[in-house]
Structures
1.
Amino acid sequence: MSSLHAQLSNIYRGKKVFLTGHTGFKGAWLAEWLLQLGAEVHGYALEPATTPVLFQQLNLASRLHHQIGDVRNFKLLQESILSFQPDFVFHLAAQPLVRYSYQEPLETYETNVMGTLHLLEALRELQKISSHRIAAVMVTTDKCYENKEDQTAYHEDHPLGGHDPYSSSKAMAEIGTAAYRRSYFSNASAVHVATARAGNVIGGGDWSADRIVPDAIRALEKKEPIFVRNPSSVRPWQHVLEPLCGYLMLGAQLMQDRELAGAFNFGPHPEENYCVADVVTEVLKSWPGSWQDRSDPTALHEARHLNLSIKKAVDLLGWSPVWNFEKTITKTVEWYRLHHEDPKSTRALTQEQIVSYEADAEASGISLS
Ligand SMILES: NC(=O)c1ccc[n+]([C@@H]2O[C@H](COP(=O)([O-])OP(=O)(O)OC[C@H]3O[C@@H](n4cnc5c(N)ncnc54)[C@H](O)[C@@H]3O)[C@@H](O)[C@H]2O)c1
């Protein structure tokens, strides 16, 4: 059997991929991976929001069709989709931060809900003028479930909900996508649309505010203690390459099989759920320093427990998590340490980590179903 890399390149090489959110953390990694697979990528997103930013470190602006555009601008988004005529769409652009969503709920809903509907509407227009097959993966989150904070492992049929503006905006994006699928993309439609609900991702190149790993690295670089808001919160942590591999495997198989047009969870094995304090402790094994509990009982609500069932993705896509918790943290800290020592090595390092992940995936027997 050919390797996962060979299988994915057979599908994506020379294909047109419309990727929203390519200036962000996950989008930049996905753009890099798609370029390694030989795809022609059109990125559509806002200007990079952090300094430094992985998008620039990978020099993506010169390696793909780079477009600054707002998903709230339906006309521009539609023009871009209609003129590029993609084979694949990966929709990652979003306002992705829970705490920011409390400050800016309307911006969050406009971006995450209307942005998603604008993309779906553009695909509806595209199918009127083109009959070629399109596979679209709309990225939401595991936070889209009605989270009762018990030990339930949520599977794809559990009720949607979301306590805060971010989580509920993603549940709304899920509902809107399902409605478009039933109303416009069923039966003979050439557009196959799925949604992907991933857990908390970590990995090199995330420079966002308000996320535990970038916060920890910023503190370690300055030789300061890491302040931890919610040390006992348990999350389905995974390396960024895990859900991205899931999105690529889903897109590849969705293109062939309309039956896969639905929702998929991507998370770690259930025994790999760890709390924030475990993450920080593991980080400190590779980059010594200290941390302090800065729990604030008056802080805005953020879910403390979240478990995901990944059975559907394992059974139907042949996807499975590859790196365990320790390796996930080791690879993440390795990336930031090397970046700290030699920022110019970032692109080579990112590419090496993708190759290393593909090799480990192959060794674990991961392949398209
Ligand atoms: N990082 C995580 O732990 C995590 C977990 C689950 C789901 N997700 C989802 O994955 C996706 C990517 O997340 P990320 O961590 O890379 O976020 P990020 O903040 O690093 O990147 C967000 C991207 O969306 C773009 N964007 C934001 N608003 C936009 C707008 N109005 N128009 C066009 N582009 C816009 C930004 O320019 C950027 O390219 C999001 O949909 C997020 O909800 C992330």
2.
Amino acid sequence: MCNAMSTHPAASSQIAQLVQAVQQSSKYAAITPVLIEQIAAQELAKGRSHKEALKATKNKLHQIAGVYLTRRPDYDAWLAQLEQAWPHAHARQQACRALMANHASTKERLPILDDFYNTLFRDLPPIHSLQDLACGLNPLTLPWMMQSGALATECTYWALDIYADLALFLQSFFDLAPINGRATATDILHEPPTIQTDVALLFKAAPCLEQVDKQAGQRLLEQVHARVLFVSFPVHSLSGRQRGMVQNYTAHFHEMVHNLSWRVEQFEFDTELVFRIWKST
Ligand SMILES: C[S@@+](CC[C@H](N)C(=O)[O-])C[C@H]1O[C@@H](n2cnc3c(N)ncnc32)[C@H](O)[C@@H]1O
């Protein structure tokens, strides 16, 4: 009999079978296998059958990543759109906006984008390097980062998310921009970033990471090597309801940093709550 409350480590062959079954679904095939493996192992350890664990693993991957991609990405067509628009500054921003609307998280940022980096990067020394963690399509906000005047001409941009096909698309985008950029498919729970940069962005990702590992948000804040770290949270649920999210996430953020002596500033935009942390690295 299965006991849903018990936890037994699953055999590696059971985990491998489950990972393979998840990868057969085109929606999850490009996700870095280490993350699928971790979630599959967690679900099997709850005493679930293969079938139940498969459903639960897919559900979790949907909640932390799939749900944000509002339509199946056609990266070749997206890149062609960008290539066509790129020579003209206005068309370039229009194309980036249109593509960012395909990811629920960057879609929410579109109405505030004209102010976003002007506000957040104000007072910062020139940014020579930046890491965008659990980035989704946020690297497409690069024209607005550049417009803020905060990026140094030779800025290096590291972009990390769990999808291999997204990483390839973002790498082509960086080559087009052109910026010295490196996009990789990385599960930051399993492989916390070791790069040292001027700025790190952890936009709206902590609640997703914490669905897999409750301590992940706090641990990452400590692990990231950056002089200035931006951590943000949504102010509406994906269904549009507000439900005290600003208060809840503000309280959650302060719990995450309560032992740390960093200078923290808070910015409230219509669709996003952002904390700017000056880390003493
Ligand atoms: C709420 S979205 C935020 C996207 C982007 N930072 C933004 O604000 O536009 C969460 C992102 O986290 C990514 N993600 C989830 N788990 C991850 C992990 N373990 N490592 C890296 N990225 C992850 C998802 O694929 C998704 O793109």
